[in-house]
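lol forgot to send this yesterday, sorry. C-alpha cells for the thing we talked abt
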C-alpha cells in the first residue's frame, strides 16, 4: 500500500492527527476529509504532494462519494455526541458504501468499546448500528473499538487535570472501570490494518490499554501527577442519576442522561477479544507518558520534577 491514497474522514481531529502521521510514516498519501478542511491545514507542513484536503460531511452521501473517489483505502474516524444516528449510523453507512463503490482495498472503521445496537445509550446503540451498516456494505472492513483515548491534546486527562484545581471534586460512578489507550497505539493499529487488509479485514478488534482502572482511582492518580490534593466526594447514584435526567439536556451540563447510561457498564475490552497484540503493538501505559504533558498543571510547571512511571 506504499504511495496509496488513503482517505481519512475526520483526519484533523484528535485521533486523526495521529492516524495521519502513522500513515505518512508508512509511506502513504493522505486525503483528509472534514466539514471545514482549514481546521486540518496544520498537518500539511513538510508534506508537499503527500496530503490533500476535501470538504465533505459524512451525512452527505454524494459528498462522501466524491471524497472517496480514487482511493485505495479509507479510514472513518468520525464520531459525535450530537446527531448520533445520522453521523454514527447513516454516516458510517455512507462511507462504507462509497469505499466499496470506489473499489477501495481496505476500510478501517473506528467505533468504540460498548458499541451494541441493543445498548440503552443512544451513543452505544448508534455505534453498534454503524458497525452493522459498515459490515453489510463492506464485508472486508476492519472495525476497531477503542476504549477512552488519551494523548497530549486529549479532552480526557486535560479536562480532569483542570477540574482537579477545585477544592472539592465530585466523583460519579467511581467504581466504573476504564481501560485508557494511548491514541498513538490506535493510530499504529489503523496503519497496520490498511497495510494488510487480508490479515485484518472482516474482523473486529477491541483496542485497550494495559490497565483497567476505576474512575475514582484514575482521578486520584491524575491528582498525583498534577500535584493537586482536592477533597473527593462520591456522588450517590440516586443523586447523579437525577442530576443527569433533570439537567443533562442543558449545554454544559456536568453529565448527560446518555453518559449516565454508559457509566452503568465498564468500558473495558472483553476477555479474550483480539486487540493491540494482534497487530504486534505493545500497549503504552498511561503513567509512562501522561505526566509529561500534565506537568503543565503543577504549580512549578515543568520545573516541578514530576516523574513518569510505568
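and heres what i got for the seq, position by position
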Amino acid at each position: 500500500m506504499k504511495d496509496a491514497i488513503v482517505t481519512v474522514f475526520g483526519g484533523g481531529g484528535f485521533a486523526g492527527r495521529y492516524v495521519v502521521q502513522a500513515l505518512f510514516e508508512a509511506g502513504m498519501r493522505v486525503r483528509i476529509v472534514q466539514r471545514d478542511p482549514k481546521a486540518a491545514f496544520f498537518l500539511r507542513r513538510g508534506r508537499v504532494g503527500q496530503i490533500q484536503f476535501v470538504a465533505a460531511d459524512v451525512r452527505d452521501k454524494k459528498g462522501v462519494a466524491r471524497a472517496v473517489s480514487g482511493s485505495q483505502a479509507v479510514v472513518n474516524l468520525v464520531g459525535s455526541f450530537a446527531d448520533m444516528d445520522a453521523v454514527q449510523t447513516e454516516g458510517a453507512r455512507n462511507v462504507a458504501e462509497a469505499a466499496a463503490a470506489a473499489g477501495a482495498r481496505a476500510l478501517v472503521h473506528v467505533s468504540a468499546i460498548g458499541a451494541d445496537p441493543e445498548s440503552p445509550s443512544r451513543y452505544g446503540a448508534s455505534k453498534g448500528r454503524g458497525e452493522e451498516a459498515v459490515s453489510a456494505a463492506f464485508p472486508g472492513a476492519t472495525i476497531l473499538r477503542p476504549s477512552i483515548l488519551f494523548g497530549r491534546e486529549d479532552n480526557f486527562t486535560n479536562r480532569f487535570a483542570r477540574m482537579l484545581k477545585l477544592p472539592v471534586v465530585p466523583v460519579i460512578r467511581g467504581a466504573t472501570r476504564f481501560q485508557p489507550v494511548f491514541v498513538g497505539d490506535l493510530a499504529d493499529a489503523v496503519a497496520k490494518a490498511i497495510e494488510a487488509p487480508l490479515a485484518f479485514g472482516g474482523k473486529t478488534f477491541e483496542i485497550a490499554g494495559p490497565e483497567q482502572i476505576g474512575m475514582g482511582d484514575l482521578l486520584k492518580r491524575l491528582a498525583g501527577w498534577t500535584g493537586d490534593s482536592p477533597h473527593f466526594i462520591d456522588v450517590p447514584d440516586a443523586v447523579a442519576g437525577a442530576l443527569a435526567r433533570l439537567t443533562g439536556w442543558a449545554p454544559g451540563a456536568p453529565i448527560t442522561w446518555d453518559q449516565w447510561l454508559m457509566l452503568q457498564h465498564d468500558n473495558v475490552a472483553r476477555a479474550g477479544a483480539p486487540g493491540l497484540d494482534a497487530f504486534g503493538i505493545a500497549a503504552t501505559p498511561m503513567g509512562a507518558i501522561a505526566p509529561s504533558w500534565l506537568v503543565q498543571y503543577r504549580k512549578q510547571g515543568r520545573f516541578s520534577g514530576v516523574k513518569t512511571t510505568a
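The chain is about 35% helix and 15% strand. anyway ping me if u want another try
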